[in-house]
Amino acid sequence: MAAFTWGSLLRITFFLLLIAAVVFGFFTLPVEKILKDFLLWVEQDLGPWGPLVLAVAYIPLTVLAVPAAVLTLGGGYLFGLPLGFVADSIGATIGAGAAFLLGRTIGRSFVVSKLKDYPKFRSVAIAIQKSGFKIVLLLRLVPLLPFNMLNYLLSVTPVPIGEYMLASWIGMMPITLAFVYIGTTLKDLSDVTHGWSEFFNYSLGVYHIGPSCIW
């Protein structure tokens, strides 16, 4: 029991430090410039590998619970609607799967400790036992919780990862398509990354506000 307790404590401490590092970094580093440089690199240097690299970039952002809307807009801007949608859709799904697996394994204790902040999610967890695919699909279509938080909360439910991935992929398609289309209408990479910091701050506010304002 002592080993389990210390292990849980270490995992929770690791997650808290990771979150603190991410928040500190995004408040102190020139994130908009970094994202713009990344998209510029994808556009100018990667050629046919660009869509794949863009999709893979979703993994660290999603795992770190960082809004990836810039990547979705960038997919539309760089590759157009069909290819941009495919790259963004696959990337968002893989990223969601990575966060899910992290929450189900080494991050489980941390996620469970957060469930008290979302009391209504308990009823969702119960419903998932009977209709996992349908519930996950509905939660993706009607985002009652922030996307990145939902990845982790669902990880401690009994939904199989296959159902989770398929339902997430289908459920995220409408919003992904909308963002990719918006990206196709933008004229410059600066338009893609402009306002990212404001969006990030808003997302932090949503996390901080709590369940009473998002349910």
UniProtKB/TrEMBL annotation:
Keyword terms: Cell membrane, Membrane, Transmembrane, Transmembrane helix
Keyword Membrane among UniProt keywords: yes
Chain ranges passing through the membrane: 12-31, 52-73, 79-103, 164-182
Database matches in InterPro entries: TMEM64, VTT_dom
Keyword Transmembrane helix: yes
Annotated GO CC locations: plasma membrane
Family annotation (Pfam families): VTT_dom
Subcellular location: Cell membrane
Sequence ranges assigned to domain VTT in this UniProt record: 66-184
PANTHER family (alphabetical): GOLGI APPARATUS MEMBRANE PROTEIN TVP38-RELATED, OS07G0655900 PROTEIN
Protein name (record): VTT domain-containing protein
Organism, scientific name: Populus alba x Populus x berolinensis
